[in-house]
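Good morning,

Attaching, inline, the backbone tokens for the sequence recovery test we're adding to the shared suite. The designed sequence is right after.
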């Protein structure tokens, strides 16, 4: 298992092309089942309306903010849930965001990448800033923590709360404009898939970036 994860890490360091070869979701827990390399990638896309309330969070710069206000600043949002000591899916999800940011280039500040910690007791703003540096996060990618109750509330809004951080699964959420439905990807959403959605080439979406 350790050798296999080491190989994945080496591939990730060379680029995000490996995500096309990643398969069904794996949990962060040690000993979780690893899918067969012969299985095809599995990503489920659904369109969902989520009502986001005024949940008090703390941004990686130490500023107290409202989740609702942060998500409704007018930009498209791509959101995930992570924790900094997660050895598996969080690293893969963060590499996807890092590569997405790189691929967007000069457009990257026009997309709000949001990573919310599901381990707020450990993930202080300082720790999140360190984690952000690891993935070369630019100004358009912000990390959020807060109280345990606030983190759980945020997870419940997007139906990702699983009761234990070790059992969480990969979910990426994307919304083009405030008030629009969210596109939810259960599984490993690739950079190409997210770019396609942002360019309005997904299923029944509008475009925010013009080719």
């Amino acid at each position: 298992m350790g050798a296999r994860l080491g190989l994945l890490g080496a591939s990730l360091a060379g680029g995000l092309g490996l995500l096309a070869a990643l398969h069904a979701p794996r949990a962060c827990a040690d000993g979780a089942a690893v899918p067969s390399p012969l299985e095809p990638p599995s990503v489920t896309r659904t369109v969902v309306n989520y009502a986001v309330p005024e949940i008090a969070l703390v941004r990686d710069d130490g500023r107290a903010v409202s989740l609702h206000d942060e998500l409704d600043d007018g930009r498209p949002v791509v959101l995930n849930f992570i924790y900094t000591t997660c050895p598996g899916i969080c690293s893969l999800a963060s590499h996807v965001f890092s590569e997405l940011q790189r691929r967007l280039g000069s457009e990257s500040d026009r997309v709000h990448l949001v990573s919310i910690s599901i381990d707020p007791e450990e993930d202080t703003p300082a720790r999140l800033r360190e984690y952000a540096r690891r993935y070369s996060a630019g100004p358009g990618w912000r990390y959020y923590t807060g109280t345990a109750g606030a983190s759980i509330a945020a997870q419940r809004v997007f139906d990702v709360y699983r009761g234990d951080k070790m059992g969480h699964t990969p979910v990426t959420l994307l919304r083009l404009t405030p008030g629009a439905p969210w596109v939810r990807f259960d599984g490993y959403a690739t950079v190409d898939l997210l770019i396609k959605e942002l360019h309005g080439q997904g299923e029944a979406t509008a475009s925010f970036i013009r080719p």
